[in-house]
């Protein structure tokens, strides 16, 4: 067990109760893990334990995901169900899906008001690529919610429809030049119906621990491709979105 804080100003300090909420366990369980050294921690001058967010995320990545039904009710906290990993999802998920969802919940971004910082990035993404639509999407278990959107009226879609679910499991961008010819997407309701997506290009947007929360993506209703310059510009804008998220303090989210 460490008796001093880990270095770095971009790695938030958590109380024991905040740690418990992120891990989805009772405070008593978090205390046990802290005292046993499972979680690195240190004591404040007042004798209170503190934990770095990075330590919590490392533990989450080592733990297999479990459903609410399989968990011990005594150790559960009221984390919204859409931030609990699905047992048998109908969409691709990264290996660290449970930790990814916990990290997304911790941002407090889902269902938050529009913000100029993100709207500016989607506007720039559309401008530099010439796309008719641009989105900053966030992926919960149940839905794809748009923190920022340009050229699209709807604020969210079911997670099963999300091109972005495929993008966050890749090391690089997902580029689909004609979705109507791609077996992964040709029967997707967003392809067969409004807005009749044909082209998609998206990079993962991550938190400070490189967990993919969603994507910055551009779309069009006609087949097309990106030039090398457009591809690089979209990459840089997604990096700016990740930096904007990473510099913010965590905002733990629980059910009402």
TrEMBL record:
InterPro entries in the cross-refs: DNA-bd_dom_put_sf (IPR009061), GAF-like_dom_sf (IPR029016), HTH_17 (IPR041657), SinI_DNA-bd (IPR010093)
Any one GO molecular-function label of the UniProt entry: DNA binding
Pfam families attached to this UniProt entry: HTH_17
SUPFAM superfamilies linked: GAF domain-like, Putative DNA-binding domain
Gene3D superfamilies with a match to the protein in the record: 1.10.1660.10, 3.30.450.40
Span of domain Helix-turn-helix: 14-63
Protein name as it appears in the record: Helix-turn-helix domain-containing protein
Source species: Noviherbaspirillum galbum
């Amino acid at each position: 067990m460490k008796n001093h804080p880990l270095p770095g100003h971009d790695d938030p300090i958590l109380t024991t109760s905040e740690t418990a909420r992120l891990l989805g366990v009772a405070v008593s369980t978090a205390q046990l893990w802290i005292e046993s050294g499972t979680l690195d921690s240190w004591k404040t001058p007042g004798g209170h334990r503190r934990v770095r967010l990075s330590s919590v995320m490392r533990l989450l990545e080592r733990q297999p995901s479990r459903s609410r039904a399989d968990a011990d009710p005594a150790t559960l906290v009221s984390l919204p169900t859409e931030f609990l990993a699905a047992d048998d999802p109908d969409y691709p998920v990264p290996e660290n899906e449970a930790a990814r969802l916990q990290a997304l919940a911790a941002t407090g971004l889902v269902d938050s008001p529009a913000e100029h910082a993100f709207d500016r990035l989607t506007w720039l993404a559309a401008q530099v690529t010439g796309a008719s639509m641009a989105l900053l999407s966030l992926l919960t278990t149940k839905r794809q919610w748009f923190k920022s959107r340009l050229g699209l009226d709807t604020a969210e879609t079911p997670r099963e429809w999300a091109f972005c679910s495929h993008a966050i499991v890749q090391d690089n961008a997902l580029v689909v030049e004609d979705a109507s010819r791609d077996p992964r997407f040709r029967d997707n309701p967003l392809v067969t119906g409004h807005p009749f997506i044909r082209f998609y290009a998206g990079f993962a947007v991550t938190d400070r621990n490189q967990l993919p929360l969603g994507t910055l993506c551009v779309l069009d209703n006609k087949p097309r491709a990106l030039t090398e310059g457009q591809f690089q510009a979209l990459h840089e804008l997604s990096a700016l979105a990740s930096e904007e998220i990473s510099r913010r303090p965590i905002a733990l989210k629980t059910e009402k």
